[in-house]
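Input:
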Amino acid sequence: MALLERMGASPETIGIGFLLFTIGIYALIGWLSRTAEVDAYYVAGREVPAVYNGMATAADWMSGASFVALAGGVYFGGYPYLGFIVGWTGGYVLVNSLLAPYLRKFGCYTVPDFIGTRYGGNLARLCAVVVLVVASFTYVTAQINATGTIAARTLHIPFEVGVYLGLLGIFICSMLGGMRGVTWTQVAQYIVLIIAYLLPLIWMSNKLGYGIIPHFSYGEGVQRIAELEAQYGLAPAAENIGGVRVLTTPANAPAGAGWGMVTLAIAMMTGTASLPHILMRYFTTPSVRAARKSVAWSLFFILMLYLSAPALATLTKVNLLDPNLATSVIGKTVEEVTNIEWVKRWSEVGMLAVADQSGDGIIQLNEFFMRPDIVVLATPEIAGLPYVISGLVAAGGLAAAMSTADGLLLAIANALSHDLYYSIIDPKADTRKRLIVARVLLIFIGLAAAFIASLKLTGILGAVAWAFCFANSGLFFPLVLGVWWKRANAAGAVAGMVVGFGVGTWYLWSVFAGGMEPWMGIDHLRFGIIGMPASLIAMVVVSLLTPAPSQEIQDMVDEVRIPSGNTILGSGH
Amino acid sequence: MADNSAQNRAEHWRKTRNLTFVIMALWVLFGIIIPYNADALNSMSILGFPMGYWFCVQGSLIAFVLMIWFQNWRQDAIDDEHGVND
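Output:
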């Protein structure tokens, strides 16, 4: 590609080339992984080595929100937004300690499969399916939205067309091979997205003199920003411009913000441990020990990006703010700034704006407007890197959004086909029929998600935070107590799911749409903090008021707690 | 030496549970207590970063990975000791 640029290919051609090349690779892997076996379709035959499962989980995990929106959130949100960084990594400690090895031993295909078998009864299974579908669907619309945005920008097509084009790519990866296809495309997508994230960062770091690995040295940048913030002053804009904002939150000022930061982190950590598309990745390993090992690898691969996001936010901010650098915009004249190539390009699409509202002819900090989501995508241009890097970043963002959408669509379709259709509606269905139902559902859910995404109802980071809160409100305690509390029974689990999910949703609605004043600063991004305690109380109280589970189920829990022996649910169940 | 007696299993589960409690305590420390007190920690400096900020963007994250590696290493030893590894 770099060669093409030198040969005089236009930037557009290079961008399109990158996108089509990577999608072609994913499609090839999807085709090679096609399968007609239930075990292969649902859990990749339980033969994915720990390291590769770690990579696949990392891609599954890091969505458009992590890749595109996280650094921008940190750039504009400062310390409170670091709750996303701590929350989206610390959750893996919960996954590893409380759930992954035990669910692997259980031998389930889906998360509701565990709930349905552990507690017994179709009602519990059905409740789990409902929570799973709502949480994952909220999440997947955000991913398809991100896919559409990137495809639209790079290929110069309307957003709505980009959405369906992105969906087509997602289908190619997941339809034929199910979990097996998704696993190996996700491994490829991880490699693409991590290179696309690290390369511009390292390049920029070297340009600014922070060394080859900026992670150890960008502390100076943090301190430089504090000086510059004090020098310019963080004032709100004189006049707001829709869709874009100025920097008002200091990068590092935690005084008094601890509660907001920690509640966000807790909501994201427990959400991590309740999201079915992540948990089901650990059903694919060959053993319990490998499941644990792959959690460690997952977090290792995830850290590659999460350690970099705040570095990227910091260095980009230094680039823009520091008047000693050629790349800066603040303090320059209006004419100079509006003539910068990338300022023009992003202003055209309404994602950036400069307005000399004070009328002094100089761009002040509160006169430079930007949409948070573009920080990562625009960084290569801001730092003056060649355009080929921008094409790479677009391909990386697409890989991140597609890989997560794959995993989520598969989680929804599998829950509906396995838990609703096969376990509840037609338990006698044969293998062929089951897999056809699974694939048909996949198409319908994908189309529905693309339709919702094309309506552009929510931003990326907000929708993702909601998905986490739906998941932890409804599923966290029923899952954890299913392993850790033998006395938990079906009535308790149903109460936990219904009350937790119900209270959480009610709170979200009241705060977001009903105009209710949030309790103790718990806003709509972290409504799981309200839903989870409600779920716990309901589950414990109802379990204790109703008879203990049968001896058979208690023995099952004992069996889950040791790694050796057969899985609870047999192969092909 | 697959010892399937109830006593062996109870002992295995007791050790597993204690290990999990230790990890959960560390999780509360690095995931909640330290980020909450970032302001106080910022008065100190580490590797050129204000310390509170450093923990939120690097220190706690690295601690999470090390905790998982440590837990898996100990859990494997516990499983082997009681003959229940798979």
